Amino acid sequence: MNDRAYGLISKLERTHSLSLEEYEYLITSRTEDTARLLAEKAVSARKSIYGNTVYIRGLIEIGNVCKNDCFYCGIRRSNKNCQRYRLTADEILQCCCNGYQLGFRTFVLQGGEDDYFSDELLCNLISKIKSLYPQCAITLSLGEKSRESYKRLFDAGADRYLLRHETADSEHYSMLHPSSLTLESRMRCLYDLRDIGYQVGCGFMVGSPYQSAAHIAKDLKFIEEFKPDMCGVGPFIPHHDTPFASKAAGTLELTCFLLSIIRLIHPPVLLPSTTALGTIDPIGREKGILAGANVVMPNLSPGAVRKKYMLYDNKASDGAESAQCKDTLVRRMASIGYEVVCTRGDIIR
Ligand code: SAM
Hints:
- The protein has 14 helices and nine strands.
- It has one domain (about 5-340): Aldolase class I (TIM Barrel, Alpha-Beta Barrel).
- It starts with a helix and ends in an 8-residue tail after the last strand.
- The chain has about 350 residues and is an alpha/beta fold.
- Helix 1 runs parallel beside helix 3 (about 30-50), helix 4 packs parallel to helix 5 (about 120-130) and helix 5 packs parallel to helix 6 (about 145-155).
- It is globular.
- The strands form two sheets. The protein has a six-stranded parallel β-sheet. A three-stranded parallel β-sheet has the order 8-1-9.
- The structure holds S-adenosylmethionine.
């Protein structure tokens, strides 16, 4: 291994910080050896906080109607081939009930940006879930909203909010989104969420179109500075009905490399081994955990709508990706030495 890369990995482990140029160097000079060393150090950092436990969250995809037109996303407004759906409040409550019985203690409500899910509807739903399952955490992932809306949902009982920043470079941001969406607004949302009191998650796609190592270095710097409670990082995978249909997918190798770096930047971070990772490789979830991730989010949505929440081609929703197959997931995690725990799974600082 070259001395500089070795030195940078030690520095990252010790100080949890590198310069933009150093992050970029680590990425562009990466080899199997540097990836192995980073993963070893990431796993040891995670083990010292979380032992050999993996947290699970039940993901409920509440609807795929979206007013946005992100160039990468299969549920973008302009995709006329997407079969739209919205779950009713009762259907969502039924998912929580199923999830609770299966042992889930965090429910993640994710969906497109859809005004049908008004503050009033969401607040009623959140208070209902909280009154039925007071020991469970509620995570929302419903995109950009006003500070007032975020506050109302928080006051109704929501605990966490996932909003990937997608890229920390504004020019790159404008290559992935229409001009109505800006990095400035995304950042405003993330800081509002933090300020209101949510546990906040940011994140980005690995290998998104036009992404360079310099862009990723900026993402890492942002994570270093923002210190998110959660960080969603998965490979970009093209969807055939989007402007990025013919773009290449991100790789498992670079995603795992970055998961290890992020663990070392912010050791307590809740880091999912994403569905996208499980989609590009049959044992992608396990590989993500072995690179430093500590969360998995199997799907709790009703079977009838799972195939409709197609963010990218072939998105996995069966087997270990399905909450109903939790036993399979538990076995697979046990096979690599990890124990799935049924708790709220809060960050340990
Ligand atoms: N509307 C909410 C939002 O924008 O945060 C939540 C749903 S959105 C579809 C969830 C995440 O899916 C996005 O943050 C994006 O990073 C990811 N995603 C969308 N299209 C993708 C693709 N083609 N490949 C991989 N991930 C994708």
